[in-house]
Specification:
D-Amino Acid Oxidase, Chain A, domain 2, Sarcosine oxidase subunit beta, 2 domains, alpha/beta, eight-stranded mixed β-sheet, sarcosine oxidase activity, FMN, binds flavin-adenine dinucleotide
Length: about 425
């Protein structure tokens, strides 16, 4: 499993790509590990990678019920940004974006991180004020934000409908370091990096039970037999409630479907990520030319990784409102993923009442950008027992006490309102 280099790519091109080897091993599960991670998505894989790289803990297994990256990490619309407003979230996503900026060099893997800039549109004076405050918070955090007036937006995005009767465009908040990355490549890069450091990545291995004795975690039951472990981390995104129930826990999580859409490949037309919050719509263009866009969650709880028609109609409606030219493009594909929606729109990285059992969940529709930061902070917590400073507010007990709630959208700490 050689490292990638320009020379190797050229050499393999010349000899018909015959010299590549699998990017990770396919090991049989061992009887016991120091750490078992349930879930081979972005967060599980990055946690394993940083456990090995930052803390030298390599006797680790990632147990994935399907195939690596087959969950939400490979289903999202790939937006990466650090434009959160509230203390707690702000420093965490700022740290995560810094990790993104060094990720390709760190993993020796092209994750196609593209800082093409993100523009959040506003449509009223009140909304402008809110974005000014957000922009100031971002700058205070050390990140970048530029307020654009209507003409400023027009310079970047001339094809928008600026005079829509319901949502005339007043301006936008530009986050130049925001952008996109290739989602599968992020999963593959972390998987390869973890495997190279000795982590066992075990696919087709569903966790069916968590073994607890006297308040201490002892291991897991799986579709490939029991595995003992000193520590276990539940990092299963949309399945968080189901897996936590195996440990007798009831999480403040509702699982909902979020859909995404992609058109046929077009010539370059959208250079940024554009977010139209009032219409619950956002869009960017992939390197292959497809317009990639999405909207709000389907409003009912579900574990089906497919969406339903009303939300499709809503998203197309918003697209036509914002950029009528999109009506000429043909949608090629749509799909859904299962979101772990938390009441305050903010995540959890914490210990549980069971000794040695950890939980990472509640990433809502924004967990792709969190993959590096989440893995880094979760690995820190598992290895040291201490909360990593940028993620120190992601405690589960905020829902019990009401203290420390991070209501990022200002909609009240209620499911479905953010
Ligand atoms: C349509 C869509 C668009 C999105 N757009 C964005 C975006 O633009 N930007 C952004 O930041 N975020 C976005 N997200 C959110 C982001 O994708 C998720 O928050 C994030 O991927 C969740 O973390 P993960 O990668 O670890 O999840 P997953 O990839 O879902 O990983 C969890 C894994 O756990 C496994 N698992 C579950 N139960 C078990 C079990 N019992 N045993 C073993 N394994 C189990 C699953 O099979 C799965 O592979 C979007 C999501 C969707 C669906």
């Amino acid at each position: 499993m050689g490292r990638f280099s320009g020379l190797k790519v050229i050499w393999e091109g010349l000899r018909g790509q015959t010299g590549w080897t699998p990017m990770w091993r396919d090991p049989e599960p061992k009887a016991e590990y120091d750490v078992v991670i349930i879930g081979g998505g972005g967060h599980g894989l990055s946690t394993a990678y940083y456990l090995a790289k930052e803390h030298g803990i390599t006797n680790v297994a990632v147990l994935e019920k399907g195939y690596l990256g087959g969950g939400n990490v490979g289903r999202n619309t790939t937006i990466v940004r650090a434009n959160y407003f509230l203390p707690g979230n702000s420093e965490f996503y700022s740290h995560s974006l810094k990790l993104w900026e060094g990720l390709e060099a760190d993993l020796n893997y092209n994750v196609m991180h593209s800082q093409r800039g993100l523009i959040n549109l506003f449509h009223s004076d009140g909304q402008r004020d809110a974005f000014v405050r957000r922009g100031n918070a971002m700058v205070n955090q050390g990140d970048d934000a530029i307020l654009l007036d209507r003409d400023g937006v027009r310079k970047h995005l001339p094809y928008l409908d600026f005079d829509n009767v319901r949502f005339p465009i007043y301006g936008g908040l530009l986050h130049p370091r925001g952008g996109t990355a290739r989602h599968d490549a992020v999963a593959w890069g972390y998987a390869r990096g973890a495997d190279q450091r000795g982590v066992d990545l075990i696919q087709n291995c569903e966790v069916t039970g968590i073994d607890i004795e006297g308040g201490v975690v002892r291991g897991v039951q799986t579709s490939r037999g029991p595995i003992r472990a000193k520590k276990v981390a539940m990092i299963v995104a949309g399945r968080s409630s189901q897996v936590a129930a195996m440990a007798g826990m009831r999480l403040p999580i509702e699982s909902h479907v979020l859909q995404a859409f992609v058109t046929e490949g077009l010539k370059p037309v959208i250079n940024h990520v554009v977010s139209f919050g009032m219409g619950h719509f956002y869009i960017s263009q992939s390197d292959k030319g497809g317009l990639v866009f999405g909207g709000d969650i389907d409003f009912y709880s579900s574990y089906a990784a497919r969406g339903n028609l009303p939300m499709k109609e809503h998203v197309m409606d918003a697209a036509m409102t914002l950029m009528p030219m999109i009506g000429k493009a043909k949608v090629l594909r749509s799909w859904g993923g299962i979101m772990d929606m938390s009441p305050d729109g903010s995540p959890t990285i914490d210990k549980t009442p069971t000794e040695g059992l950890f939980v990472n969940c509640g990433w809502n529709y924004g967990g792709f950008k969190a993959v590096p930061g989440s893995g880094f902070s979760t690995a820190h917590l598992i290895a040291t027992g201490q909360h990593h400073a940028p993620a120190a507010k992601f405690r589960l007990d905020r829902f019990l006490t009401g203290r420390g709630i991070m209501d990022e959208e200002g909609t009240g700490a209620q499911h479905n309102l953010h």
